[in-house]
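Thread title: Can someone regenerate the structure for this chain?

I was given the following input by a collaborator and told the matching structure tokens would be attached. They weren't. Posting the sequence so someone can regenerate them.
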Amino acid sequence: MTWDLTSYFPAFDGPEMRGFKQALRDDVSTLIQTATALPQLNKASAAGWEDILLRSEDLSRRMSHLGSYVSCLASSDGRNEAYLREESEITRIRAELAKVRIELLSAFKNLSDPAFVEFSALPSLAGARNYLNRLREEAGHSMSSEQEVLATELGIDGIQAWGQLYNTISSKLEFDMVLADGSRKRLPMSQRRSLLDDPDRRVRRAAFEGGNLAWQSIEDTAASALNAIAGARLTLNRHRGVNHFLDIALFQAAITRKTLDAMFDALLANIEIPRSILRFKAKLMGLSALAWYDLGAPLDLPQESPRSWDKAVTTVGESFLRAYPALGDFFRKCVVKQNWVDWEPRPGKRPGGFCTTSMLSKESRIFMTYNESLGDVLTLAHESGHAYHGFLMRDVRPHARGYPMTLAETASTFGEQVLMNGLLEDPAVGDQQKALILDIEVGHGAIYLLDIPVRYEFEKAVYEERANGPLSVSRLKELMTETQRHVLGETLETGGEDPYFWASKLHFYITGLTFYNFPYTFGYLLSRALYNLFAREGETFLPKYEEFLRLAGSDTAENVVKKTIGADLQKPEFWAESIRSLEQPLIELQALAPKVMDLGE
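Best answer:
Regenerated them for you:
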């Protein structure tokens, strides 16, 4: 591993870690017993429930520390059985801690408005009002304590086990890549993502076809996992009185249906903007339309050489410092000097990337696989944006740190924008690299505005059909290709669909959150709106941006945005303005690309 995890614990399964875990287990057990013995929340029991909330907050802080550490280890080496066992053990401890929340839901279930207002006003709970509001809202759709405990315990060997099964299989999965000269390479699946972004279409096709053959070999397992995860959620929704499966996603995203509809209404009205990006990309490739594996392809500029890891670190650091000095200083002092990133490509690593933060040590770690592409440099900036968000919230109480994914993805995509604009403003950057950066900017726009909606529409259709029974592998493939065709229209070449995208996209198998898709589009467009304000207002905007990040877990997404930048997320025009902001970089790319690619006018 290339990151340093010793600030978590000196050694895996050493005396410090074992002692920490045992103390956490004991304290969770004691708190469950105390909470179970308390009557429902009233004047007489208010002090007891106040104590439960404060002690659960401390346990959440410690749980985040242990969970973050173990997820780092298991992701970096998915073949290490000791790490995988520990990951399963963390799942069980987390499930036990969830029982405290179950008792809190029961306590709040029938609480009157005046009693709730009075309890929320306790000085010790200052700053936790949003957490309490959400707790009360969730309580309205909770089952009895006994049923919720049963659901939690069954979840360990049910829905969570299916997600874990997918993680284990995907981390061990390898694929054969047959190159144009007939040679064959066997590679871990974690490297496929970068290969699909290769400028050479032959490389992309080889990675796509070889990868899909590997996914085909486990299609029945993946389909079983997807069906089980969706089925378990639908069953719990029915017993909890949840009217629609999207209600849970909206609650987790801290937005209203009106906001979600406003975003997608704006996208539908302006869908020709991202489609025009794909048309231009196809033209540059000499194609009439694109295959799915072409969506992330950069400009084919042979002069571009691979970027070493040290070069990537320098590129991100200098761009951050130029555009946003505080972010650059954080990146240099924390992310780089304290070795927060595991970047090395190697067998056994899980696919994808993430940033995880310990609320106890107030540190983050970034997981990614670096394959020397500009897209990987962007991933480093993306995940560093997440880490900076955690840094700004380091002194915020745990009950005010549970920000939704809609706002979490804003910080990361803002980090990407800072990197790209920092590079574009660097006088040392020539036309060739500027074209590459503009290509990435508009290309990412197409991904967020077309690829992500494909995931959303597909998952929505899966849940609608899953209510009537499991979906077969053939139906999942059919549904995925139909959705890709519907969203991308004629920009997707006939036969160029990816029928196994439902199997290869790990986001469909995340069990902690449902609909792990539309928040990416939400965060992308919101971050563009924020960055456009930054471009207009300069450094005077940054205090508002940092306050936005600090408040992310303290209110609904709509209210956080309203308080900090005064915008209304329920109006389609807000989203439309961000979508239209992609037109200018596309115009610039259309003017620059013929020069650097020697295509002529």
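The first strand starts at residue 174 and ends at 178.
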